[in-house]
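Handout, section B. The chain below has 456 residues.
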Amino acid sequence: MIPRLTPSRHLPAAARARGLRRRPLLLGALAVALALVASCVSPSRRAVDSSTLRGKVMCGYQGWFNAEGDGAGRGYTHWTRGNVRPAPGTVRVDLWPDLGEFPADERYPTDLLHADGRRAEVFSSYRRETVLRHFRWMEEHGIDGVFLQRFISSLQRPATLAHNNAVLEHCRAGARQHGRVYAMMYDLSSLAPGQADRLIADWKTLVRETRLTRDPQYLRHRGKPLLALWGCGFKDDDKPRPVLEDWRRILRFLREDPEGGGVAIMLGVPSFWREQRRDCITDPILHEVLRMADVISPWTPGRYRTPEAAARHAVEVWQPDLAWCRERHLDFLPVAFPGFSWHNMKGAPLGDIPRLGGRFFWSQVAAARRAGAEMLYVAMFDEVDEGTAIFKCTNEPPTGNGAKFVTYEGLPSDHYLRLTGLAGRVMRGELPATDTLPSGLTPAPRPATHGAVTGP
């Protein structure tokens, strides 16, 4: 028989007094314990505030990779030329993903070999589990979210449209499951003149059928859902570009249309948009069009190549850019990238813009903050094509049968994920904008093995 506990009000007075004296001590000890537990919970595990772009670090997310057998019917899209099985001479990426956390059913075989004879494998963005894992990495490292890329020129192909829509749903699930945010970014750089209706029709379909702008994880800014449009004002460079009248029509639709409008607009523009030189068209109407936006984001990958040049660019270009934007009540979103290499795609030198163990990337973070930036766009989360990825990549790529790749210079595969998460803290003023890498992120690089190129 279980003895009945005596209620405290029936205890002798002396015993009740001792209990009352102990209670504050117990409550105090409990409070200390809870505080210690709370201090061990990383800020990255807290759900991201989706109400504003301010204070965020957002990555571009391509999500364009496929593999034979993934169910998309697109072959090895973006891994190789012609979407054939990856092999020496067909591969078109310069970094190789680290698949150490991937189960066997998310890995797809190639004809590339590691130095020890193992067959190299790739992933597919069409797989929901793979995208969810990417969002878990974002959560673990304090990265706020992504701009999901949507190339308007390729949506006419049914298989591509189906793939893009599937990846969008994967991203929504990943953002919901891991407390991240996302927003759509249309790449309009190759939209032919007079084809604004293609963007308008696709956006209206997305809003109507997916209701994504009502998603709690969809990023908002200035009280409205944020939509990014990339490619406004770039020189032709032998590509068809939308003319400024097309941009006006699109922006007017996004402002006013009762079904697809009512959004905040981010415009991805050339580096020298303000002075209209180098990568930018020369047209007085351009600045009128830009004033129809809410956020201006100049594209800088390839515009500087060293930490010193990045610092100069911030002073000479970003600071006056930001002043121009503030005078017109626009927000300014600079772009940082970790390095650049497109040897296998273009035949250019391997590691063309060296990463320098993260110093090149961090120099841009610090320079952007010193210039006055309060938000940052990182290019890119997963683009191994041009060697700008910040997700987990291996230091032992498949060089066993002659292929060449860059690596993370012997640093941990999550090195750039960690740096990107810390960049968000710099943008929020939680960490100082330092010239050196944050403490704990400057291990001596280990030389990569098996003939991989590690840097300059």
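Note. The mean pLDDT is 90. Compare this with the example in section A.
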